[in-house]
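Input record, target 12 of the design panel.
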């Protein structure tokens, strides 16, 4: 893989919750404008690993991290790194949609206003562009000032994506973003992901192997805190190098 195509590089990463080691010597890279999926049984460390990429684990007491996570050339765990600016570059979409109890418009422009943007024309322009980017402008353009919580779940999830797009992240992290959605809504979010990778880099945790095989370019299989195998998705699903990966993919384990 060409060096300049990497946007994130994880090296010898270990994470401890107190005495318990949740991540063990993890190495992987995330390629620019690609979708990277993390798969594995529940409790294997995939969400923990994802949360390391924008320091969400900082919010948990007793966490200790060693090793390296570089966003381009910046070591993100360096004490000099401002977490708020890191999370603007590396945004996150969670399992359940979490729109604010505000209007659709106020949700999308929230981060912009926090950043000090007050010009209404600018806010309107970015809101429209972000909602179009999340494939929902046509559904909501006539009800921008309606409560976001009235939207159906898949549109709430797309609104959370639009809220991220408004602040122009480099990387979008998705932690099982379809787990609360029905199959049709899931398909729409998957199509959106594939469209978004033209402009963004996406890392996704999914419990759904079919989803990983459908949308991702690279896949990492994790087990008990270790990265068992990381490769091109097609290779992982058709010709894995590790027997443990093969057993998981074929349904013998997990």
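The sequence produced for target 12 reads:
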């Amino acid at each position: 893989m060409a060096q300049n195509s990497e946007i994130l590089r994880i090296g010898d990463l270990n994470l401890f919750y107190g005495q318990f080691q949740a991540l063990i010597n993890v190495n992987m890279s995330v390629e620019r404008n690609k979708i990277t999926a993390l798969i594995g049984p529940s409790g294997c460390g995939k969400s923990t690993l994802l949360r390391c990429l924008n320091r969400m684990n900082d919010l948990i007491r007793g966490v200790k991290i060693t090793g390296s996570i570089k966003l381009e050339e910046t070591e993100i765990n360096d004490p000099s790194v401002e977490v708020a600016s890191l999370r603007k570059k590396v945004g996150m979409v969670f399992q359940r949609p979490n729109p604010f109890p505000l209007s659709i418009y106020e949700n999308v422009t929230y981060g912009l206003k926090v950043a000090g943007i007050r010009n209404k024309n600018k806010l309107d322009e970015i809101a429209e562009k972000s909602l179009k980017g999340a494939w929902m402008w046509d559904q909501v353009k006539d009800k921008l000032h309606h409560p976001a919580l009235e939207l159906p779940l898949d549109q709430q999830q797309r609104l959370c994506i639009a809220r991220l797009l408004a602040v122009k992240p480099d990387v979008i992290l998705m932690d099982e973003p379809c787990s609360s959605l029905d199959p049709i809504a899931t398909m729409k979010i998957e199509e959106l992901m594939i469209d978004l990778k033209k402009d963004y880099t996406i890392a996704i945790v999914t419990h759904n192997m079919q989803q990983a095989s459908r949308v991702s370019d690279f896949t990492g299989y994790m087990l008990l805190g270790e990265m068992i195998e990381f490769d091109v998705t097609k290779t992982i699903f058709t010709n894995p190098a590790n027997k443990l990966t093969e057993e998981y993919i074929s349904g013998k384990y997990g």
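The mean pLDDT is 93.
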